[in-house]
């Protein structure tokens, strides 16, 4: 099957890593659906990326399983199949466990961990039919803990371990599963505004290129966990 007939579903695709991956997959010939909690944000991103290929923007909240199912069904209704899931949507709430609120904890776990489970659960039957690919976006914080990272570390450690278990669950069904664990990326994450000062960081197009490389990998080989970091971070 040519890439022109393949489809990808990207959560949190209106900006940042999800946006960079969407652009890379469009340039490879994939049809792409990007989601955001805000329909206007998703549609605005789709409009900006439309020159690269066939793309739609959908409103979906990864914290809500029914919302994910409805979004996936829209992809299936439009294109008839689903070949790639990029479970990317995530947030960051940071602070000492003394300061972290119950609401911040729940929102972090609901978005970063439950959201990945809901996204995979909503897509898994379609991906089994296409013998597709699941890629989750974890973080180096999913294996390296730090002060003030209680909620974020917990969510990303969870994503890393969960994804590896899913890989073992699904590889005999023909579905490939990988997790990408980036370090510092030049995105809008945690209300950051990317600038020229972020030139040393991983760029969103770098993650897009990495996703493309995974999708082009010979089917007999599965890079299941990929750590990626800036090659020359500033010296402290």
TrEMBL record:
Q: Name one GO biological process term.
A: monocarboxylic acid metabolic process
Which superkingdom, per the lineage? Bacteria
Identify this protein by name.
SDR family oxidoreductase
Q: Which SMART domains match?
A: PKS_KR
Which residues are in the Ketoreductase domain?
A: 6-202
* PANTHER family named in the record: 3-OXOACYL-(ACYL-CARRIER-PROTEIN) REDUCTASE, 3-OXOACYL-[ACYL-CARRIER-PROTEIN] REDUCTASE FABG
Q: Which family does it belong to?
A: Belongs to the short-chain dehydrogenases/reductases (SDR) family.
NCBIfam families, per this entry?
PRK07326.1
């Amino acid at each position: 099957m040519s890439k022109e007939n393949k489809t990808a579903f990207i959560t949190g695709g209106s900006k940042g890593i999800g946006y960079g991956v969407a652009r890379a997959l469009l340039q490879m010939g994939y049809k792409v659906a990007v989601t955001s909690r805000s329909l206007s944000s998703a549609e605005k991103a789709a409009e900006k990326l439309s020159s690269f290929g066939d793309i739609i923007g959908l409103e979906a909240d990864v914290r809500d399983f029914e919302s994910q199912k409805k979004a996936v069904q829209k992809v299936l209704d439009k294109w008839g199949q689903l070949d790639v899931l990029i479970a990317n949507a995530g947030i960051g709430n940071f602070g000492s466990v003394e300061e972290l609120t119950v609401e911040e904890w729940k929102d972090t776990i609901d978005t970063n961990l439950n959201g990945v489970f809901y996204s995979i659960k909503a897509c898994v039957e379609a991906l089994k039919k296409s013998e597709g690919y699941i890629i989750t976006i974890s973080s180096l914080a999913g294996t390296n803990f730090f002060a003030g990272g209680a909620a974020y570390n917990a969510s990303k450690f969870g994503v890393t371990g969960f994804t590896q278990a899913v890989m073992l669950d699904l590889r005999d069904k023909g579905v490939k599963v990988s997790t990408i664990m980036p370090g510092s990326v030049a995105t809008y994450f945690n209300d950051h505004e990317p600038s020229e000062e972020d030139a040393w960081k991983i760029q969103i197009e770098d993650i897009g290129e990495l996703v493309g490389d995974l999708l082009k990998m010979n089917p007999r080989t599965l890079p299941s966990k990929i750590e990626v970091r800036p090659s020359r971070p500033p010296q402290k």
